[in-house]
Design brief:
- The chain has 446 residues and is α/β, with parallel strands linked by helices.
- Strands 1, 2, 3, 4, 5, 6, 7, 8, 9 and 10 form a ten-stranded mixed beta sheet that branches.
- Helix 8 packs across helix 9 and helix 11 packs parallel to helix 13.
- The mean pLDDT is 85.
Length: 446
């Protein structure tokens, strides 16, 4: 009799169950903690904007870590949101302007980080504002003018309409052109419009085309503080004299502009390992990415439309975790997978396992209880025989029942660690057998 005393059938069943549980365990880990992808698609914007340039810089850094990157040219933030929300689109990450969405509109999306300021530029023909000495400093002064507000599907278009709404404009007071910045510049140069609005980073290539065009100036937002209070996703940004271009002296004096935040967005099921890799790249890339950001201002966790992804938030607060600092990314992912599944299982399993010995003992005690009852009846029979005029047939009948009980006890599978019960019963059976033998001998002598 071995310690466990398990039949082959039980061993085979236990082995199969163990293999099945291990398979389920690893499948569960794979589902709960996705691996770092080998290829990603990033929705950016037009090739003349900073979204696309940022995408190119980001791509170079990610590919150093073995992740292939494809950049997708789009109309802007609105289209990017649609693409990254749709799992079938193939887009994994997207750049989105703050102020164009919220958690209710896109519950399956999360923010990874704010990556740079995206000023709202209002470029105007100075000869269109001679009545105010060519100095535009308020959205209210756009009444009666022809204004380009960005192409449909762009963040510019959304923000422009929001600003006009704040000022109480109605369609009859202004002529709107929903066109791209490139188209708007052509119309400004042809004097077909008076103002062009668009949101891009200060280092975007499109700006060079504007500041090289004579007769154009940048609006100074005198009411920037008011906009920031009414539209919390905006912030006031100081633009020093000549910061856009020293060669062309733009702006010709220090001004303020309002800016949204360009945000890197992903679906909520993004791999924690990939998030850590992204954050590592962003901290290296954004140290001094644009001329209007403060030191260590980006990546940022403020003024974001969507909830900050939990691993990105932890990275911003504490830096890379111990595992990602000391282990290769693929190994750190697997350790996290095991911990994420094993810890809850242990939390449930350990208390359950503590009850297994109790359950096993209860099952064994129920079996032994039946033996004790039968043994007690036989003891009563032996005692009755000892106190009466017994005959040899009565003794043999009781002896047969005792032998059957002894055989039944021998067939019970009792673990070695519980052998005391087995030998206790066997010893008492032997005591009854001796008493019956003594009665047999005494009966034969008579």
């Amino acid at each position: 009799m071995d310690i466990y005393n398990l039949p082959k059938k039980v061993i085979y069943l236990a082995s199969f169950s163990l293999v099945a549980l291990i398979g389920i365990f690893f499948l569960t880990m794979w589902y709960l903690v996705p691996s770092i992808p080998s290829k990603v698609v990033i929705a950016t914007g037009s090739k003349t904007g900073l979204y696309y340039r940022f995408g190119e810089d980001f791509k170079k850094q990610l590919e150093k870590s073995g992740v292939k990157v494809e950049l997708k040219v789009t109309a802007g933030s609105i289209e990017n949101l649609k693409l990254v929300s749709d799992e079938k689109s193939g887009v994994d990450l997207a750049l989105v302007q703050s102020g164009v969405t919220n958690e209710q509109k896109h519950p399956n999306l999360v923010s990874i980080a704010g990556v740079f300021h995206e000023p709202f530029w209002v470029w105007y023909r100075t000869d269109s504002f001679k009545d105010i000495s060519g100095h535009l400093n308020s959205i209210q002064q756009l009444k009666g003018k022809r204004v380009a507000i960005g192409a449909p599907g762009s963040g510019t278009n959304t923000l422009s309409k929001e600003l006009l709404k704040v000022h109480g404009f109605d369609p009859s007071q202004i002529q709107l052109f929903e066109i791209s910045p490139d188209e708007a510049l052509k119309k400004l140069q042809a004097k077909e419009i008076d103002v062009a609005c668009f949101s891009v980073g200060v280092d975007a290539p499109i700006l060079e085309k504007f500041y090289r065009s004579p007769g154009l100036s940048i609006m100074d937002f005198d009411q920037a503080d008011t906009y920031v209070r009414q539209l919390p996703y905006l912030r006031k940004v100081f633009l020093p004299h000549g910061n856009v271009s020293l060669e062309f002296n733009q702006p010709p004096k220090s001004i303020h502009v309002i800016a949204s935040t360009a945000t890197l967005v992903a679906r909520e099921d993004i791999s924690p390992g990939f998030t850590n890799l992204i954050m590592e790249v962003l901290y290296d890339l954004l140290k001094n990415y644009t001329r209007i950001q403060e030191v260590s201002e980006f990546p940022s966790s403020i003024r974001l439309d969507l909830p900050l992804q939990s691993d990105a938030e932890d990275y911003m607060k504490e830096g890379p975790s111990f595992l990602y600092r000391n282990l290769p990314s693929w190994l750190a992912v697997w350790v996290i997978r095991i911990a994420k599944v094993a810890i809850p299982l242990l939390a449930i399993g350990i208390p359950v396992l503590t009850y297994l010995p109790v359950l096993f003992a209860l099952k064994l005690n129920l079996k032994l209880g039946k033996i004790y009852i039968a043994l007690r009846k036989l003891e009563d029979e032996v005692l009755a025989l000892e106190q009466s005029e017994r005959n040899i047939e009565d003794i043999k009948h009781t002896s047969t029942k005792l032998h059957q009980l002894d055989y039944q006890v021998s067939k019970i599978k009792i673990p070695t660690l519980r052998s005391d019960k087995y030998f206790e019963i066997k010893s008492y059976i032997d005591v009854l057998r001796i008493r019956l033998n003594e009665m047999t001998i005494a009966n034969l002598k008579n």
